[in-house]
Amino acid sequence: MSLQIALIAHDRKKEEMVNFVIAYESVFANHQLYATGTTGQKIMDSTQLKVHRYMSGPLGGDQQIGALVAQNILDLLIFLRDPLMAQPHEPDIIALLRLCDVQGIPVATNVATAELLVRALDRGDFAWRELVHKYKPEGEQ
User: Fold this and answer.
1) What confidence tens digit (pLDDT) does each residue in 34-47 have?
2) Residue 113 labeled ligand binder
3) What gap in Å lies between CA 74 and CA 5, rounded to an integer?
4) C-alpha–C-alpha distance, residues 9 and 24, integer Å
5) Can 62 be counted among the known catalytic residues?
6) Where is the active site (predicted)?
7) Topology annotation, domain 4-134
8) How far apart are CA 2 and CA 32, in angstroms?
9) What distances in angstroms separate CA 31 from CA 36, 53, 84, 87, 132, one per listed residue?
10) Which residues pair with 4 in a beta bridge?
11) For the chain, what are the domain ranges?
């Protein structure tokens, strides 16, 4: 089963994201990848993966990926945030994370959580959509 996965990394986390994707390139190769501009380019420069790139995060890329979430297209978000650096587009980041919570999209904001999710993905333990739909209260879509 191919999933839709978005990859975002703040400036001081881009190298960490690239190294993470290199480590799990064989897993990511089986899925459709999306990323904000620079992060996606760095991943493509360092791997054989094809990544659909959106604008840079501060220029609207976070919102473009948020649209995938709102349309219930995205299955997983790995967003390596820099918690020690103020971000000028923080409202966009908060909106994206809120959308993921509303839609029940798994989100990793650090490598430790990202690794747990990607290992589950690799094992085929990623049937969360079926569980969400099975246990949704009547009347919710």
Assistant:
1) 999 999 999 999 99
2) no
3) 6
4) 16
5) yes
6) 62 (proton donor/acceptor)
7) Rossmann fold (3.40.50)
8) 7
9) 17, 15, 31, 29, 21
10) 32
11) 4-134
pLDDT of residue 31: 96
8 A C-beta contact, residue 78 and residue 56: no
**Per-residue pLDDT, 58:** 82
Which one of 11, 62, 82, 125 is the catalytic residue? 62
Q: Which residues are CB-neighbours of 90 under 8 A, at least 6 positions away?
A: none
Residue 12 in tokens = 């001081």
**What's the pLDDT at 88?**
72
pLDDT at 39: 97
Angle between helices 14-23 and 37-46 (to 10 degrees): 40
User: Could you give the CA distance from residue 92 to residue 111 in angstroms, rounded to a whole number?
Assistant: 21
> Is there a contact between 31 and 2 (Cβ–Cβ < 8 Å)?
yes
**What's the pLDDT score for residue 136?**
55
In the chain, the amino acid numbered 123 is: R
The answer to whether 57 is a known ligand-binding residue is: yes
Query: What is the per-residue pLDDT for 114?
Result: 98
The answer to whether the annotation marks 46 as part of a ligand binding site is: no
Pick out the chain residues at pLDDT < 70: 128-141
pLDDT of 87:
78
10 is in an annotated binding site: yes
